[in-house]
Amino acid sequence: MSGQRAVLVHPSADALARASAARLLLALADAQALRRPVHLAIAGGSVGTQVLAEVATSPLLENLDLTGLHVWWVDERFVPCGDPDRNEGQASEALLGGLDIPAANVHRMPSSDGADGAGDPHAAAADYATELAAFAPSGTEAVRAPEFDVVLLGMGPDGHIASLFPGHGTVTIDDRTVIGVPNSPKPPARRISLTLPVLTQARQVWVVAAGAAKADAVARALHGADPDEIPAAAAQGRDLTLWLLDAEAAGR
Ligand code: 6PG
Q1: What's the CATH code of the domain at 130?
Q2: Burial class (CB in 10 A: 0-12, 13-18, 19+), 50
Q3: Which end of the chain is more exposed for a tag (fewer CB within 10 A), N or C?
Q4: Number of domains into which the chain is organized
């Protein structure tokens, strides 16, 4: 059963990033009061990266025990290690490079030149699925992955989330936690993505979007569009789904 949904509108993209960073740090600290470790999944993209940059300088960081935090990616661009297009590189620059999170807790998706997957996004996806499965709560058979405390998603103007794109049929995949994407319409073409069963078993799923270009997709997602047309329509957390928008993205 899915939990509550709220739409929160901020006056500007900067205010959205600052507020989302504060909200994220408090949500993770709240989660740490209840269980260890806590699991966060992050996306790439400009808004998500801006939120991470705000986290890096927030005084609220002191509420969090970074040794009890695991960081995962909802998707990755399947390019060589060190390529500036890598989502993990952007996150490291914005946040992870400056924080004392144990290296073993930072679960980067494979790169196209890594030993894992050996240049094949489908094999790399299978490797990441194995890593996720090692953190599945005991007793769960259906979705072998951690129950993320927070999944922080960006959304493209076409309504894609993670690397689940409109018209690709990938929103109905329910037999894998991770897929290789060979044909992303947003460059680079080759990617790795979590699937909806693992994203939606998260306690909280947040979609962060800014700018007028996102307004149409936001409106369609919130009015129950077909997820194969607007994948963000399927963004849903078990306890809470938050749409964190700036005024432009909320304009429709
Ligand atoms: C990626 C992302 C992607 C992103 C959205 C929003 O690899 O590009 O993970 O899903 O979050 O496209 O990106 P913007 O915030 O830059 O519009």
Answers
A1: 3.40.50.1360
A2: buried
A3: N
A4: 1
